Amino acid sequence: MGFSRVGLLRAGCAAVATLSLTLSAPGAFAQESPETYLQRIEAIDDAGPHLNAVIALDPDAASDPDVIAAGMSALLAGHVVLIKDNIETRDMPTTAGSLALKDNATGRDAPLVAHLRKAGAVILGKTNLSEWANFRGDRSSSGWSGVGGQTHNPYAIDRSPCGSSSGSGVAVAAGFTWAAVGTETDGSITCPASVNGIVGFKPTVGLVSRTHVVPISTSQDTAGPMATSVKDAALLLTAMAGSDPADPATAEADAHAVNFTKGLAEASLKGVRIGVLRRSPDRLPAVTALLDQAIADMKRAGAEIVTIAYEPNEAIGNAENTVLQYEFREGINAYLASLPGDPPARDLAGLIAFNKAHAQEELRWYGQETFEESLAATDREAYEKARETAKRLAGAEGIDKMLKQYGVDVLIAPTTAPAWPIDPVLGDHYVGVGAGALAAVAGYPHLTVPMGQVERLPVGLSFIAGQWQDAKVLKIGAAYERARTAKLAPPSFRNWHE
After folding, report:
1. Number of domains in the chain
2. Strand 149-150 to 144-145 pairing
3. In the chain, which residues have pLDDT < 50?
4. How confident is the model at residue 281, as a pLDDT?
5. To which H or E segment does residue 146 belong?
6. Helix, strand, or coil (residue 386)
7. Per the residue annotation, which of 130, 160, 164, 168 is the catalytic one?
8. Is 4 a residue of the active site?
9. Are 189 and 182 in contact (CB under 8 A)?
10. 446 located within any domain
């Protein structure tokens, strides 16, 4: 049986004793018991720093019949996983963070969740997120939702967890779970992974089913693993991946759904040609210094470094915006129409009306301009032209062209800037330094691995390659992870200035 956080009975255990379990090096949390994770969530997420990473819990998850049937020889036997709350689970509501879906108990598992259960994973609960995966309005604060409130970064609780997979990133970093599942349309796995000091992997679009996941874009949406190591992310991905007849994008998935952990331990950077995407001017010297240290580490490990001048192409972003608005309107209308029961909205127009009727709870901090623009995005011809433009510029004339022109195996860049202060009034203060949008729009794999910290704030290093090159990216990322010399301090669970 699933339980909402409000309905959980608390034992009132002392927070200090459990909090001490978290003050260790990043990646120190191995597979632990569900009871240990529940205690840590109670001590840190509910009491203590109040990170607000977890929306719902199922304390009986270890007794799930699928987990028991899988047995201890299963791929993920007993491994505890948290699921972003825009992915359906049969035992807990799926809210997308919105009060409009607070009672959305569909009784069905998304296929990716069913795969995890059959692999023996213990689905302990659901994580908070930027409401509607941050596709609602302007000036949002990443990690805020009407259902879960504001999620906080464990490295500096007054700073952003990024999003939209905010709770998943924070939960892994804070030791609330062995690993978590996030979703991404553009940056929603990789950004929170980077600023929370963990590994995040956005796979090739179509490697993991999107059925029963609250949609934004059929072109760009995917779920992916978030963990404390590349190996754990690869293990989780291995269980999640596969074709789904209900999701045409996954038609080729079975042909590419290998054991992604195979070869990771032996992976080497010797002879690997790495293209470094350099932007001018240097926007954040401290981040560039970390990149230079990472490059030196990779050179010592035998990699060949190729510098590539890179500047974002505004035409990609403009075309992407047209694509996302059109596909969101179509996708969310179909999703809401499919829901059992009597939800308060059956289409996008109904969601807009719901938010207006509950403006104090839903619209106090920011609006729903994106919803309204998407409602008006009905020009099919303009959409199809924008989709072709975005895919071509990001893929064939973007990532593919650079890989071929410079003869490199992978492209790297800083994932994003360090976490910025949380500001619900003015919204996010995001400073873009990476190239993740290319991978998002093209639908190609994008891995982020911690590369160091700036003033105790984590920064990740991105690894990007071509379609279906997921295993290759993971191997190169794992080899870098072993070669890294930067020191990674644990979360402080304090305000940044303290």
Report:
1. 1
2. antiparallel
3. 1-28
4. 79
5. none
6. helix
7. 164
8. no
9. yes
10. yes
Instruction: Specify the 3-state DSSP secondary structure of 401.
Output: helix
| Cα separations in angstroms, 327 against 47, 100, 224, 387 | 40, 20, 20, 10
Q: 491 in a domain, yes or no? A: no
Contact criterion met (CB below 8 Å) for 129 and 417: no
Catalytic residue among 188, 194, 217, 462: 188
Residue 466: CATH number of its domain: 3.90.1300.10
Q: What is the 3-state secondary structure (H, E, C) of 35-99?
A: HHHHHHHHHHHHCCCCCCCEEEECCCHHHCHHHHHHCCCCCCCCCEEEEECCECECCECCCCCCH
Q: Is 188 a catalytic residue?
A: yes
Nearest to 81 by CA among 95, 64, 102, 105: 64
Q: Which domain holds residue 220?
A: 14-483
With a CB cutoff of 8 Å and minimum separation 6, the contacts of 158 are 152, 421, 422, 495, 496, 497
Confirm whether 299 is a catalytic residue. no
CA angle 140, 146, 149 (to 5 degrees): 80
Q: How far is CA 302 from the centre of its chain?
A: 31
Residue type, 48: G
Single-letter residue type at 228: T
- The tally of CA atoms less than 13 A away on the side-chain side of residue 362 is 21
Structural domain includes residue 67: yes
DSSP letter for each residue of 420-477: PBP-TTT-------S-HHHHHHHT--EEEEEEEEETTEEEEEEEE--TT-HHHHHHHH
Helices (H), 77-229: 111-118, 166-173, 190-195
Report the pLDDT value the prediction gives residue 30, as an integer from 0 to 100.
Answer: 65
What is the predicted pLDDT for the residue at 16?
Answer: 33
**pLDDT of amino acid 283:** 82
Residue 282's pLDDT is 81
Whether residue 118 lies inside any domain: the answer is yes
Q: What is the pLDDT of residue 29?
A: 52
The answer to whether the beta carbons of residues 406 and 386 sit under 8 Å apart is no
Closest CA to 182 of 195, 168, 203, 199: 168
Q: Can you give the pTM of this predicted structure?
A: 0.95
